[in-house]
Amino acid sequence: MCTGCGVEAELPVGATAGCEVPCPDCAEAMTESWRWEAVAA
Fold first, then answer.
1. pLDDT given for residue 16 in this prediction
2. Given a cut of 60, is residue 41 above it in pLDDT?
3. Please, which residues have CB within 8 angstroms of residue 30's CB and are 6 or more apart in sequence?
4. Do residues 4 and 23 make contact, with C-beta atoms less than 8 angstroms apart?
5. Cα(5)–Cα(38) distance, rounded to whole angstroms?
6. What is the pLDDT of residues 1-37, one digit of tens each?
7. CA atoms of 39 and 29, how far apart (whole Å)
8. Within 10 Å of residue 30's Cβ, how many Cβ atoms?
């Protein structure tokens, strides 16, 4: 989700891990809306 304009985009984990990703619409920083955690077996 964009902190500037509110647009939502699904991005691959490899593209966002440890990096700040700019919004494709307004260039503000994107943030994670959800974090998926692995289920312990």
1. 60
2. no
3. 1, 2, 3, 9, 11, 16, 20, 21, 22, 23
4. yes
5. 31
6. 888 898 888 777 665 666 778 888 898 988 876 656 6
7. 29
8. 21
Amino acid of residue 9: A
| Distance from C-alpha of 28 to C-alpha of 30, rounded to nearest angstrom | 7
Tokens of 35: 């974090």
Sequence-distant (≥ 6) Cβ neighbours of residue 35 within 8 angstroms: none
Q: In 3D, which of 14, 39, 4 has the Cα closest to residue 31?
A: 4
Residue 22: per-residue pLDDT: 86
